[in-house]
Each structure stands twice: as structure tokens, then as C-alpha cells.
Amino acid sequence: MALAQPATALDLLAGAAVVRFYCGEDAQRRRVQTALRRLPEDASDAWLRTWVRTVSDPFDDRTGLLSLLPQVAAEARRPDRLTAFAVMAWLLDETPQAVRAFDEAFDRWGMRGPLPDGLGGAAAWSYVEQGRWGRAREACTRSSALGSTAGLDHAVACAAAVDATVLAYQGDVAAARARAADALALIDPLASRSVAVYARRALGAAALAEGAHEA
Fold first, then answer.
1. Model confidence over 6-51: pLDDT tens digits?
2. End-to-end CA distance of the chain, in Å?
């Protein structure tokens, strides 16, 4: 398929990169990167290739990927591309850029029906990292509702993990633990390592809020 239908193959890789991010499997990362190298390059697909590289492994060539962000931002006119740019910025630790893009998405489309898919965990985490906890919880509520409607337990679990973290930071320890437990109950920790890690980090923050440093 890579040679016969390169555009279709790249679309499939874009989805596989997301799976790789959530599962944390190195073998999956290598498969995605190998498949990407086999695809013939085309100027028209540069944006999607940048997405695959960033999401599958943002640390492999962070400097190179950062140099591509301005071009990605310039092409972020559609809702899906704006939110994808925001996700990439967050993954590359450019949280201020991510938050500005997510804000624009909320402001531009929030009053005209549902926001485009993709404003889930990355948006919420970006707001957490900027100390905008109310906005983070709004993003969690939306992501959880979309996930529940679509039957995507992973999305619901991710939202619960972010929510748990905010509650822990706010000192609501009991609620934080309950939300972390919700997240862990919904996922296979080996298949969704990122969510498992986030949920356990929330439990750590809850223990810290109580002064239970050993826990």
C-alpha cells in the first residue's frame, strides 16, 4: 500500500502514531517510523508527515520538529488542523503556543455547535500546565461526553485522569482519588500506559496534598 496508495498509507500512519503515543510501545514507534521512511515524499503531505513524526516520537528530533512548527501553524486554518497543531505544540513542550491555539479553537467554533474532535486530553493538559484549571476541567467535561457518546473508554479515562490531577492540585483529595480510580478502571494499563501514568501521578499529587510523602 505504501507505494501504490501513499496518501492512504500516510492517513493510516497518522492514526497509528496516536496509538503509539498512548500505548508507549517502542516496537510500535519503530514500525511507524520505518513505514514513514518507505513512503515517497510529496510537498502536499508535509503537514501530515510532521504530525506522524511528532506524535510517534516528539523527542527523536525535537529541534527539527520545532523548526517545522511555524509552517504547520501557517496551514492551521481548518478546525482539525488548528487542533492538531495545538497537540503537536503541546507534545513538543511549547505549551503557550498550544494554549493559544486551543483557545482560538474554543473561541472560533465553541459557539457554533460541538468543537472539532481532538480537543481532548492534550487541550486539558495544556491548560493544567498553564494553571488554568477551570478551563482544563471544561475540556475534560467535553472530552468525557464525546468519549461516552462514541463508546471510547480511553478518552473518558484520559479526561478522568486530568480531572483527578486538577482536583489533587486544588486539595480535594477524596474526589481526586475517586476520579483516578475511574480512569484506572476503564483502561488496560499495558495498552494505555499514558493514562495509567497520568492517573497514578494524580494519586501521587493527592498524597502530597495530604503530606503523605512516602505514599
1. 888 899 999 899 888 888 888 889 999 999 998 888 766 888 999 9
2. 50
Could you count the other beta carbons within 10 Å of the beta carbon of residue 48?
A: 18
Q: How many domains, the chain?
A: 3
**Same domain, yes or no, for 13 and 53?**
yes
What pLDDT, on a 0 to 100 scale, did the predictor assign at position 43?
Answer: 64
How is 141-195 classified by DSSP, letter by letter?
HHHHHHHHHHT-HHHHHHHHHHHHHHHHHTT-HHHHHHHHHHHHHHS-TTT-HHH
The Cα 122–Cα 104 span in angstroms is 15
Integer Cα distance of 45 and 34 in angstroms = 17
**Residue 167 and residue 91 share a domain:** no
Prediction pTM value: 0.87
Same domain as 39, residue 65: no
* Separation between Cα atoms, residue 42 and residue 28, nearest integer Å: 24
- Which residues span the domain enclosing 66? 61-115
